[in-house]
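[09:14] KT: can someone run the structure on this one? pasting the chain below
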Amino acid sequence: MPDELMPIGEFARRSGLTASALRFYADTGVLLPAEVDAVTGYRYYAAEQVERAGVLRRLREMGMPLGPVLRVLDGAPEQAVRLVREHAAAVAAEAVLAQRTAAELEAALGGAPEVVVGAVRGPVLAAAIEQVLAATGVDPALPVLAGVCLEALPDAVILTATDRYRLSTRTIAPVEAPAAVWAGTIAGAELRAAVPEIRRTPVVALRATAHRLELGARSCRILPEEFPDYRGMLATLSAVVTRVTVARDPLLRALEEHPGGDIELRATVGGEVRVGSATLRATVTGTPSTLHFDPAVLHPAIATAIGPELLLDLRGPAQPITLRSADRGDLTTLAMPIHPPNGTP
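[09:31] RB: done, structure tokens below
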């Protein structure tokens, strides 16, 4: 045996994997020994395999199946990062679903106590509700689209709404962290009615029962339907091909002055972006892009944006555009473009 190889026991200690796990990964082709003694069958590993084994161990700790694990280990770095992000998003979505299912089961079994969801500043919560409500929709077949998903995490409260053509998600810092992770979809109309009182309340305590969320003195219904898996969608977005930094007010004015019909957004690399018939100063990087939008979809996304300058991430004519503040990242809105008219490039 060459000096640089180590027996399976030593490799197990250095990699954090058990000897039985190493035998399994060898049998499945994920982590082969550097050498196998033809007489004794003893397996030996090289020092440079420790890094691969460590990555393998951490991927399995995330619960990633062997197929994707092998693609992460043997694929290009870009593919590996994408696979890890997609799996992490799926795990997070499953955790939220498990919390929601547990709450429903507790309620069905008659043992659901009041849950302390935390506390947030009233004016901040009121603004966040108004911002994401613009992305709610009315669809009798999908009543959950009229609601706002509220997730309480140890370090953040996240509000999200979508009508399938737009998605807005706003993150705010809690004044008081929740006793446990909590998520529910709150009736949008009731939240809208509660906004004035929430805005007047310095700190709003959030407490949930089986079917209602108490926001200080106001109470809103929790919808029974499951909210769409928006994290999974965000994790699978295509790469950004064009990035535009543009002043919010001129962009909003160009939309409001548009005479009607769909509106074209044309970004050329350099110092301007064309919106309908208006030419606006902008910083554009990446490749030139042309998209078409329904103004009724794009206008609310821009009108509710935070700050004087916006960052627009374009991914192509069939992918959603992402709108964010150029200097704040706590409100993100996505808007879907539409197919261009016949004959339009």
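[09:33] KT: thanks! The first helix runs from residue 8 to 15.
[09:34] RB: yep, looked fine to me
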